[in-house]
Amino acid sequence: MTLSWTHHLIVAPVLLPLIGAALMLLFNERRRLLKNVIALSTASALLVIAILLLRGAASAGFAGEPATTAYLIGNWPAPFGIVLVIDWLSALMLVLTALLGLTSLIYSLARWDRAGPRFHALFLLQLMGLNGAFLTGDLFNLFVFFEVLLAASYGLLLHGSGPVRVKAGLHYVSINIATSLLFLIGAALIYGVTGTLNMADLATRIPLVTGSDLALLQGGMAILGIAFLVKAGMWPLGFWLPRTYAAAVPPVAAIFAILSKVGIYAVLRVYLLLLGGDEGWTASSGEEWLLFGGMATIAFGAIGVLAVRTLSHVAGYCVIISSGTLLATIGAGEGAVLAGALFYLVSSTLAVSAFYLLIELVERREGDTALQTGGAVFDDEYTIARGDQEDEIGIVIPATIAIVGGGFAFCALLIAGLPPLSGFIAKFAIIDGLLGLDDGVATPIWWLIGLIVVSGMATLIATTRAGIDLIWTPSDKPQPVLRMAEALPVGILLAVCLGLMVFAGPTMRYMERAGQSLTDRQGYIRSVLSAPPAGAGSMQP
Amino acid sequence: MEIVLSLGIGILTGSGVWLILRPRTFQVIVGLSLVSYAVNLFIYAMGRLKVDAPPIVGSGLADPADYVDPVPQALVLTAIVISFAMTALLLVMLLASRGLTGTDHVDGDDGE
Predict the structure, then answer these.
(1) What is the pTM of this model?
(2) What is the pLDDT of residues A345-384, one digit of tens each?
(3) Which of A125, A140, A181 to mutate to test the interface with B (most CBs of B within 10 A)?
(4) B7-37 burial string, b = 16+ CB within 10 Å, else e?
(5) Mutate which of A184, A191, A194 to test chain B, going by most B C-beta atoms within 10 A?
């Protein structure tokens, strides 16, 4: 069987940024133009590939064929070799990553990429780690790609240096190393009991585990779950998140908006695939933890968003609220609720990312515009001297305040989930799904609906308060300069949110199919385990 | 052998967790290293303990009982490399933090 070239596209989201990042290392850090071109073309190519993959999965899926495709990297059959798997959810996350990557990168080119060395290479490695985590089909490679994206995120968080970032970075790195060790313990326990790490293979073996092994396996799953939930930022494990994200430079914080969603993705994938079955003990395990943990997270985020005074912390707590809403809805039910949750995931990630980019533009009016850079660390480092920013070239946009203010209001509505924008549609879909659950609407579900509404209101209050403070207060400072490279990415992100609203029908159909495919465990297992090696028959291993 | 290995893992983890909870950056780093050694041994143990058995199957048909599971060994190798790199990065951050804040407290100030 010969495979079409589109089949090999599945590996491109991992390979392409890796090659791009490796290419960067060959060139001196002062050749900025070249590095910008490499980074931009890689990020744009990633977006095109992700959209192609999404279209491929969607067209196969809507035509009634399985949308799940497995790619055997070493051409060994599935439980033995390493597999990449693309399905509805993976394709969606790839597009989201590529979009955020491209917009954050464009934004960073205005000034932030010069705040420290090696920005572009780290940025591409970050994209590689994210793409790999969304594509991988086995637990250990999930760990490896988690480490790749974390290692890149450590570097990006420290980009620009300074005491605040180093302090936040020290905590972030320590917590994440400890979490990774938990991940390893969990994965090792699961391997010790089942003898496999391939997720599809695990899904067939886990329901068969009995006796004393069961306790070990459940312990392993629980430890693994903790590792994912630390990444997702569930209360009380997400205490580090707002401070860390606030310390990062804006384009980095904008790409970090999807880092917590990796934890959510892992929960969705591993939890629904491995523990979502109807057989034996897997039928009911962990839902209530996700539901109540998620609700506590929403409450924590809502209180936090009202308590903090700086906008970047407000955005951090918005990430927490978003994580909590997603975790609680995943715990609450399947089917229509999942579709709403996925819609919310996309909408809230885009909105928070745009928010992080806007914050810097809004606050620039308040403070000085000087970049806070540390001293040079490497010999070939390109640093800007303070006050030496006149030479920056860029198209300056008039009516800055109107644009920034308008974008800010748009973002606030999106994050708070007010009509008519996509944030509202997403929350409406979730609540509609929750009310239509088969087994009646239990008390915790009412609490969840209440919390979702209240958290939206808290976000609205916090952003309005900050917006009045920053945009309406008269100030005799000179009007800030807004460059095209800074306005464009925010515009793209908000335009995509607008697109989600206008094309809510087709998007929702996609999300519904994605939600169904997540609960169709047998379909996933079949697609992965029966994927034929290329040239099967002629080549026996 | 089981008792020696499990005691080793237990002692390493215990000391590591205690050190991670200490307030000085260097103690935290040593703690994380100790726990990562414990985790590496733990992964290794998850492939079942067997003495004098090679992890690579030779030519011809072989009885799997004569060999040790090679997968955990590959996993440990990856885990060692990753934790080694992370420890190196953390050491650099320790020095940066010490230089920028003038203290080796994890919060950047001694709270005096």
Answers:
(1) 0.88
(2) 999 999 999 988 888 877 765 544 444 444 444 444 444 4
(3) A181
(4) eebeebbeebeebbeeeebebbbbbbbbbbb
(5) A184
